Amino acid sequence: MTISDTIAAISTPPGEGAIALVRVSGENAIQIADKIFRGKGEPSR
Predict the structure, then answer these.
(1) What is the pLDDT along the chain (45 residues), one digit of tens a residue?
(2) Which of 8, 13, 20, 28 lies at a C-alpha separation of 20 to 30 Å from 38?
(3) Which residues lie below 8 Å from residue 33, measured CB to CB, with a gap of 6+?
(4) CA-CA distance, 17 to 23, in Å (whole number)?
C-alpha cells in the first residue's frame, strides 16, 4: 500500500445506531464516493 492508494473503511463502532460513517481517503476518493453514494433527494442509480 502506498500513500496515494484510495481506501475505504467503516469508521463507526459496531452496534445498533442511527448513523454509520464510511471513510474514503486517497487520490480517487471523490470519484469513488460519487459512484457509490447519492445525496438526499437524488434519484437512485
Answers:
(1) 888 899 999 999 888 888 889 899 999 999 998 888 877 777 766
(2) 13
(3) 24
(4) 17
44: Cβ contacts below 8 Å, ≥ 6 apart = 38
DSSP secondary structure of 1-45: --TT--EEEE-SPSS--S---EEEESTTHHHHHHHH---TTPPP-
pLDDT score, position 15: 86
Terminal CA-CA length for the chain = 31
Q: Where are the domains of the chain?
A: 1-13+20-38
